[in-house]
């Protein structure tokens, strides 16, 4: 039952990824992007014959559907093509960029989860108090503040004025990649990660506040308080257990927002990650690198959603009962004119 559902989820994700590659290729094909013209504009004394030769070398003289099938066939075999601007394998460029982005997103994911959940618990347990109103106000402000504004403010304060963090980049300037330590990468990723985490705190906080507030009004919480338990004892012993799993699932399903936020932060901090690579590839009309970056970003989003499904099925009994009830209804449909009855939780 569980294996069947996860298999269907993987098949659906594969179909969606195929659709994304097709739509992305069409958007690039019919957009104003001109890879040959962009490349030739940086050269001098290029004749028309040479321009035609470059277009033929890059396959620009072929119909779009032939180029799409050729690109898709290469992707299925692990060949993303060669970057037009960098003249290097797209897989090599994306490997470095994805590694930097994963470090940034992992730090931002953990920070936003811990801070967002903690603030949500505080606000939900003291609903209606001054603390609750302050937390809600902060969430509204963060939701309406663009990521690049938060990044510029943090850079101005902690990098320029205080000098506590590097101003930008993903590694120290002038140092070879082979000599860069994990501590150096961590130091350069800290400020962008804090930027993304601050912007992503609001969703987890508001969701957790609502969940904790509803739990504190439930019969379980009332019974616990009637037995003499204090508010924070009830939250620690019962509230966390009932609200932590939905918050974790929300974090996994919000990877799309996390990726978009990290892309803006990477541009602000000149951080060499997936977002900055995609942005620069679009500006340079580097089609192979742009398509490869978009595909990898989609894969990361789908992985996050798949992890959320796995956690929900593996750890939440109510989800397993719901799946079992749906499969039982499908296998034994109710006779026409009758209504299938599914008993609620006892």
UniProtKB/TrEMBL annotation:
Region annotation Disordered: where it falls in the sequence: 325-346
Transmembrane segment boundaries: 102-122, 134-167, 187-206, 244-269, 289-315
Domain of life: Bacteria
Keyword Transmembrane among record annotations: yes
InterPro entries for this protein: MetI-like, MetI-like_sf
Chief subcellular location: membrane
Pfam families per UniProt: BPD_transp_1
A Gene Ontology term for the protein's cellular component: plasma membrane
Record-stated family: Belongs to the binding-protein-dependent transport system permease family.
Name of this chain's protein: ABC transmembrane type-1 domain-containing protein
Originating species: Corynebacterium maris DSM 45190
């Amino acid at each position: 039952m569980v294996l069947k559902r996860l298999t269907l989820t993987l098949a659906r994700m594969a179909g969606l990824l195929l659709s994304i590659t097709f739509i992305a290729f069409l958007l690039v094909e019919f957009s104003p992007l001109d890879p040959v013209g962009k490349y030739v504009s940086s050269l001098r004394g290029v004749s028309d014959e040479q321009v035609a030769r470059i277009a033929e070398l890059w396959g620009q003289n072929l119909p779009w559907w032939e180029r799409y099938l050729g690109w898709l066939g290469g992707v299925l075999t692990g060949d993303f093509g060669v970057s037009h601007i960098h003249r290097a394998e797209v897989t090599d460029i994306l490997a470095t960029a994805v590694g930097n982005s994963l470090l940034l997103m992992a730090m931002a994911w953990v920070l936003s989860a811990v801070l967002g959940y903690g603030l949500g618990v505080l606000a939900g347990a003291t609903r209606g108090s001054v603390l609750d109103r302050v937390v809600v106000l902060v969430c509204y402000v963060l939701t309406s503040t663009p990521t690049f504004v938060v990044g510029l403010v943090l850079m101005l304060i902690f990098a320029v004025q205080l000098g506590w963090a590097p101003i930008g980049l993903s590694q120290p300037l002038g140092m070879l990649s082979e000599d860069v330590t994990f501590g150096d990468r961590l130091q350069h990723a800290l400020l962008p990660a804090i930027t993304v985490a601050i912007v992503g705190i609001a969703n987890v906080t508001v969701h957790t506040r609502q969940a904790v507030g509803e739990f504190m009004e439930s019969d379980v919480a009332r019974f616990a308080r009637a037995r003499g338990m204090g508010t924070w004892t009830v939250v620690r012993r019962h509230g966390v257990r009932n609200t932590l799993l939905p918050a974790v699932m929300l974090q996994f399903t919000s990877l799309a927002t996390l990726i978009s936020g990290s892309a803006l932060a990477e541009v602000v901090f000149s951080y060499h990650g997936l977002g900055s690579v995609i942005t620069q590839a679009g500006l340079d009309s580097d089609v192979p690198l742009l398509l490869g970056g978009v595909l990898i970003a989609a894969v990361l989003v789908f992985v996050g959603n798949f992890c959320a499904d796995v956690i929900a099925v593996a750890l939440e009994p109510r989800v397993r009962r719901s799946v079992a009830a749906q499969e039982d209804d499908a296998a034994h449909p109710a006779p026409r004119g009758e209504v299938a009855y599914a008993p609620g939780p006892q």
